[in-house]
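Per reviewer request, we include the raw input and output of the structure prediction for the construct analysed in the revised manuscript.
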Amino acid sequence: MRYSVDQAYLYESFRRIVSVPSPVGYSRELNPVLAEMAAELGHAVTYDNKSTAYITIDGEDNSKTVLIGAHADTIGLMVRCIEANGMLKIRRLGGVSFTSMEGETVTVHTRDGRAYTGLVICRAHSVHVFEEARTLERDEESIRILLDEDVHCAEDVRALGIRNGDVISVDPRCQITEKGYVKSRFIDDKGAIACCYTALKYLAEQGLRPKHRTVFAFPYCEEVGLGGAYVPEGVSEYIAVDIGLIGPELEGNERSVSICARDASIPYDYDLITRLINCAERAECSYAVDLYYRYGSDAGAAVRGGNNLRHAIFGMAVYCSHGMERTHIDGLVNTTGLLLAYLLEA
């Protein structure tokens, strides 16, 4: 049975979620949006001490509890120090690739709630001025934030309320083309959150309950390897919905849902992966099964944390992961279809 997914809602929910900044550990702006969207579908949101947002739904059988995890954090930056000229030095939050970030607009979020935009630049920022502008390695030592403010020294910056440790978010620059291509930063993993909410909408409209008690979890530290380390009591299966990859030796593509059999360090649960493959075939989802060399997930973190559960991962494949990513609406639809098949059939 192929599930009929509301593509308009899928698009709109992604636009809504991806527009809200949520670098690693920074939940204050996105959690209220997740709660509002959940309320629109008739659900309440709860939180743990790590600010992970949860939506819990009773199943046809509550003797078993499964968890669907889609991480809410994105890669980002943090103010490392303020230089004498008023520029900001930075540290990474997660696996930032500066080769794709130079020239992006960013926002500095102060702890008292103010926000200031700026530009990611290299200290050798102009080929007309610096001999090494083309050759200097882009890393934490060479990258700076140029604030869009009239600042000329460190004291000018401090007067704005900016301090070391402030979080810096990057403009997602979301675009959706007429041919269905989705181009944006942070499809990883806000595309997956949109799929989760679209599945919740389908269940609500069809008056359906999942087969088992289901917990949807949206943690804020996947990009540093900790998102699934804590698992609520009673969960026996952890499904991470996260990006698939595209490249040599990989069958994944933008229009399919990718199922990961092994990541950089561990294989995923054999029987659960087999069930997901069977679900994809019954739901007529275009899918691929791949192994990832440089990759990890919240489901893997859950297992490493010693939790007694089965674990698996699937999601829409993207080009240019951790950069300006691209996928297709078909990949998001197939991901939502597999999610529904797992919830209702597995």
